[in-house]
Amino acid sequence: MAIAVLYFAWVRESVGCGEESVDPPESVRTVSDLIVWLRERSDGHAQALEDMGRLRAAIDQNFVPLDAELGAAREVAIFPPVTGG
Amino acid sequence: MIRVSVQPAPIELGVEVAALEERGAGGVATFTGVVRGDDGVTELMLEHYPGMTEAALVGIAEAALARWDLMGVTIVHRVGPMVPGDRIVFVGTAASHRREALESCAYLIDRLKTDAPFWKREKLGSESRWVDARGSDADAAGRWE
């Protein structure tokens, strides 16, 4: 099933877009699986998603750890640690 | 009771504080974050995750209401371009007594730092850089667990 993937901050800049629709294979079960799979899409993706330790994620607009199962996720966001306030 | 706003417009301090005072509480505590001009920063750009940001701030406000006896909680965060001296964030609480107001105000800003999807980008003249998250912010949020 198609998932909307959103990128923010330097992840967005490096990937080259803020949002894309992807249809990963069934073997992609967790957020970290998805990140590894997305690296193959372009050099920009590979660069942005290279270091898992610098990435955080949300599923359907809720923060999740990278080992969270995608389940029936419709929207997955990948971004750096937040710096508001 | 809860007011949350994520806005490009400047934060009107007097309006926000007056609205909290009108809750009829005995005390109002507030925190205002201001864009720093140190290190030669000339502009600050705030990016956020529309939809999730508002929901995250409401969640933080609801958690404060569950923990303290409050009559009002306000969180206003500015987004888009700002310059040093601009207000970037305002949090305020209204309660019957100072302790609840002050503690819950500190809780709100500590949790906002780590639990809301905002990202800062600093401009220094012609150069710009994304601001790195600080471990001390995670420590500050962790003290409320």
Could you walk me through the main structural features you see in this protein, from its secondary elements to its overall organization?
The complex is a heterodimer of chains A (85) and B (145). Chain A has helices spanning 9-15, 31-38, 43-48; strands at residues 3-7, 19-22, 56-59, 62-64, 75-79. Chain A is of the alpha+beta class and 85 residues long. Chain A has a single domain, classed as Ubiquitin-like (UB roll) (Roll), CATH 3.10.20. In chain A, strands 2-1-5-3-4 form a five-stranded mixed β-sheet. The longest helix of chain A has 8 residues, at 31-38. The N and C termini of chain A lie far apart (36 Å). The mean pLDDT of chain A is 97. With 145 residues, chain B is of the alpha+beta class. Chain B has one domain: Molybdopterin biosynthesis MoaE subunit (Aldehyde Oxidoreductase, domain 3, Alpha-Beta Complex). Chain B is 35% helix and 36% strand. Chain B has a four-stranded mixed β-sheet, sandwiched between helices. A four-stranded antiparallel β-sheet of chain B has the order 5-3-7-8, with no helix packed on it. In chain B, a hairpin with a 2-residue loop joins strand 7 (118-124) and strand 8 (127-130). Chain B is globular, with a radius of gyration of 15 Å. Chain A binds chain B through residues 6, 8-10, 58, 61-63, 77, 79-85, and chain B through 33, 46-49, 51-52, 55-56, 77, 88-89, 109, 112-121, 130-133, 137.
